Amino acid sequence: MTVWIAIGATVVGCYLVKLLGLLVPAAALERPLVKRLAAMLPVALLAALTAQQTFSTGQHLVLDARGAGLAAAALALVLRAPFLVVVAAAVAVTAGVRAIGG
Amino acid sequence: MAEQTSPPAIRTPPATAPTAPTEDKADSAVVRDALAVGVAVGLSGFAFGVTSAGSGLSLLQTCALSLLVFTGASQFALVGALAAGGNPFTAAAGAFFLGVRNAFYGLRLSQLLALPRFVRPFAAHWVIDETTAVTLAQPTRRSARLGFTVTGLSLYLLWNLTTLVGALGAEAIGDTDAWGLDAASPAVFLALLAPMLRTGTERAVAGLAVLLALGFLPVLPAGVPVLVAALAAPALLWAQGRRARRTAKEDAR
Questions:
Q1: How many structural domains compose chain B?
Q2: In angstroms, how far is CA B36 from the centroid of its own chain?
Q3: Which of A25, B45, B46, B196 is the most exposed place for a label (fewest CB within 10 A)?
Q4: Which domain holds residue B229?
Q5: Between A and B, how many CB-CB pairs are < 8 A?
Q6: Prediction pTM value
């Protein structure tokens, strides 16, 4: 049930924020500070989520095979690999390190 | 889902794109560009389906997210927070804040597409990174509308189809961690983040957010550290603004 509550809240919130952009007059959101904040918010959230989902299990910080997988993804990004290759590299390296016993 | 390509063009649209009376782009060229983006990114719904099912969500819940939320980073964030045992509202808050940027895409799109009012509630569901990127690249209103529609439709169909296949596949293979599939979600986030790290400010925000997220992880309930980390954005903008004001004052002296 809690999962459905979370899904419902996300569905409503994400839809309304999309609709908001199409409905409000441009001047309302076009202030420089608001735009800067809107551009920075995803940077902070994505960085936090990347770190957390790589280096934690529950409420514990851990360094395991996912760290190697993320390093492979970072390398793929530096080499300008397409999106799917980046994700595939992370998955393959993580699985490989686990198979070796990492 | 769908935020994967996140080209820099989204944030700094060429000033000429909306109005420049360049030669009419052939409809077929618009459709081809739109389909390329829609198909490439739509396939990554597979990664979401696998991740969501691997996080313990049911097939119905996984598909409901792709059908009704349809903004990939938010979907990944939500299932990650739920898997970590987060409270449903903190989990939804993280997903919501990631979706806020879509409002700013909508602002640009509403000027370019000039949609009738009654169409907007339907078009809104497709306002995401990729449709915005394709639409902003079009020279005329006609091609902008065509690009938005074709990208939105192809991406929506494929994203949902591949979500279903991924969720079914995850159930079939059982232990998704043994296949390294728990690394898919952070890799998706990193791929979305990388093109945004263009200046020192973005890198500083990202670095501070990582420190806050990992630092508070052991002491705060699941889902909350990510929200605390989001404060890195206003904190650094505030510090930057203060420094700019001080420099301006010294210059004036």
A1: 2
A2: 18
A3: A25
A4: 197-253
A5: 303
A6: 0.79
